[in-house]
Amino acid sequence: MNLLQTIEITLTIPTKLQLTASMGSVMQGILMENIDTQYAAYLHHQSMQPYSQYCLFDKKSHLLKWRISVLKTEASKEILLPLMNLSGPIHIRNKHTYFSIKGKKLLRDTTYEKLALQYLTDNQPCIDKTLTYTFLTPTAFKRNNQYVVYPEMPLIIASLLHRWNAFADITSLNHDDILPLLLKYPLWTRNYELFMQPFSLERTKIPAFQGSLSFSSGKHEMAGKILCLLSNFSAYSGIGIKTAIGMGAVEIRID
Q1: Within a 13 Å sphere around the CA of 246, how many CA atoms are in the beta-carbon half?
Q2: What is the DSSP secondary structure assignment for residue 95, as one 8-state letter?
Q3: How confident is the model at residue 146 (pLDDT cuts 50, 70, 90)?
Q4: What whole-number distance in Å separates Cα of residue 251 and Cα of residue 249?
Q5: Is 10 helix (H, G, I), strand (E, B) or coil?
Q6: What H or E segment, with its residue span, contains residue 119?
Q7: Alpha carbons within 13 A on the beta-carbon side of 147
Q8: Where are the domains of the chain?
Q9: Any residues with CB less than 8 A from the CB of 182 and at least 6 apart, and which?
Q10: What is the pLDDT of residues 86-116, one digit of tens each?
Q11: CATH class of the domain defined by 115-254
């Protein structure tokens, strides 16, 4: 069965260096430098990447938390294992500096089967729950070749369904059946605090948003279960576009 795992590498950075979420694009380069060249070439030709990664910068401690998640077992062996074996300072060429490794840990660990058993059985009620999505890094979608910078539920659900069905080796969630089911029942917005936050990529800025969104899981039992399942999956997969370079990182709370 395919693994879902997240590791966190804590890096100490020079005190005068200020970083943003866009550092994720730099760290993707570090990732590629430290994995097998043949696997890196394989990833280069994939339309959907079996991993996501992003950076969180703690200004007080001046630490960078680099989180990398994988969506299949092969990626765990080819990506997470080499990164957990990293030693010595990491050379950040575009900043002309080095980051020291302070610590490494396995942050999250499950499988598609465990998630499905947890949420698609009668043991986990998901009626009228409040789901809070906190978008940790700039997030955006694309529709008709245009950027969408608001967390529309059809786009969130479609993004998660697409990734789940691409990598889950057990329960497939038929997009044509599930998406209409989830959108058929009202998902009332309960609170939101959103703001525009562009993501810098080379010489361009991708329009995007950050912040939090809370909404109801509704009163339909199966729709609520699938929504809770996909929401928990999002912590590994990310949401929206360019999750492999640091966009679309999300944390979920279900109350």
Answers
A1: 26
A2: G
A3: very high
A4: 7
A5: strand
A6: helix 112-119
A7: 14
A8: 3-111, 115-254
A9: 153, 157, 223, 226, 227
A10: 998 999 998 889 999 999 999 999 999 999 9
A11: alpha beta
Report the CATH number of the 3-111 domain: 3.30.70.1890
Name the residue with tokens 């990293």: 86
Structure tokens at 86: 């990293």
Beta strands in 144-208 (DSSP E): 146-148, 189-196, 199-201, 204-206
What gap in Å lies between CA 242 and CA 231, rounded to an integer?
Answer: 18
Q: Tally the residues of the chain.
A: 255
The larger pLDDT score, comparing residue 169 to residue 76, is at: 76
Angle at 24 between CA 229 and CA 210, to 5 degrees: 60
Instruction: Give the DSSP H or E segment for 216.
Output: strand 209-216
- 140 pLDDT higher than 90: yes
- Enter the tokens of residue 137: 């890094």
Q: What is the pLDDT of residues 154-205, one digit of tens each?
A: 999 999 999 999 999 877 787 778 888 888 877 889 999 999 999 998 889 9
